[in-house]
Amino acid sequence: MTSRTAASLNSGENFLRLLGTIHSDLFTPFYWGPLSGMNKAPQFGSAYMCWEAPVFTERTSVGLDVHARSVVAAAIDGVTGEVFRARLTPSNDDVLGWVRALPGPSAVVYEAGPTGFGLSRALTTAGIRCEIVAPSKIQRPAGDRVKTDARDAMHLARLLRLDEIVSVTVPTVEREAARDLVRARDDVRGDLMRARHRVSKLLLRQGIVYYGGRAWTGGHLVWLQAQHFDAPGLQFAYDAAHEAVLQAEARRGRLDKAITAMAAASEFTPVVHRLGCLRGVSTLTAFGLAVEVGDWDRLTGATIGAYLGLVPTESSSGQSRSQGSITKTGNTHARRLLVEAAWHHRKPYRSPGVAMKARWELAPAAARARGHAGNQRLHQRWLTFTDRKKKPVIANVAIARELAGWCWSLAVMDG
């Protein structure tokens, strides 16, 4: 090998190494074997690592602006540069027929929204790659002040061709159904809370306050049924508010039974049993986390906190670093479940209680050991925050962030 050839190879190697260092967030890794004839020892074990830019492989990129009553479509032919536009009905067959008429192969993208995943499943079944982009991750020029359906569709088509989209995970039909069940239960929880507030505040306006112990227990419900008013209008209003509470409690009970039954015999059962080894994670909480997160393997212990919006916001430049409240991005329901569960770790922990021992009987030994270690660690973290005079609400969010990591470690365990 001549000196000029060796210098060329060395400069190319340095360029690849620099490219992987600067743009590691924009490239996907693959391994490049050691160059023959080079005397330099390989990096990263036995192979050089460089980064390959994502490549759009289809001929036509299609962007769809999907609404309940219309679909505005735009497509770009990567070979001829021709642009296709159309206004379609929201029927899957109509959209599928128009995409099939384009020069193929094609790839389609549209924003996640209230129309769901039916169109994506129909296109995928037909052999057409379909991506659903997260609306909050779409890159938009700061100076672009004109927004129309046609411009949005064309913008999506261009981003797809550049591979500059962040896709959301399309759940299976079974997982989406389980998620709807969990969210229906969460809706009933909110309805029940509002109905109870209406009853208690109606009584408070009349100067009636319950002093017999904790509210909304058996004794409190008997006390509520005994309340009567002389004014007919007030009595009708009270009866309506009280009836709303009873109906919401009945609906919540039916949904709790359905969730418990599905958690005991479904594809989520192993994950639910392992997550139940942690304090504050009962069957309802574990099942909610299992169906909301879905594929735990796409995350890591370091990224699940950011995925659930439990990491602090940050505005740093140069030597200054400023952090604020948590981002609150990602799945709101899963984040609320973790924040509520984190409060349980404030109390001292020595050994599992009766309820937790019953959940431990359903989990493998490795999960029980890890859950026990997690319970000890999270309580110790609470003590540390208390010694540092941290506000409980701020400390609890930090505990919830670490609890998310422990949940991930249990969810990805084998068995």
Summarize, please:
The chain is α/β, with parallel strands linked by helices and 415 residues long. The chain has 14 helices and nine strands.
Descriptive notes:
There is one protein chain. It contains 14 helices and nine strands. The protein has 415 residues and is α/β, with parallel strands linked by helices. It has four domains: 3-52, no CATH class; 60-140 and 147-161, 2-Layer Sandwich (Nucleotidyltransferase, domain 5); 173-262; 269-411, no CATH class. The strands form three sheets. The protein has a five-stranded mixed sheet with strand order 5-4-3-6-7. The protein has a two-stranded antiparallel ribbon with strand order 1-2. It has a two-stranded antiparallel sheet with strand order 8-9. α2 (92-100) crosses α3 and α9 packs antiparallel against α11.
Work out the radius of gyration: 28 Å
Q: Categorize the overall geometry.
A: globular
Derived structural class: alpha/beta
State the oligomer.
Answer: single chain
Helix percent band: 40-55%
For the biggest β-sheet, the strand order reads 5-4-3-6-7
Which regions contain 5 or more consecutive residues with pLDDT less than 50?
Answer: 1-48
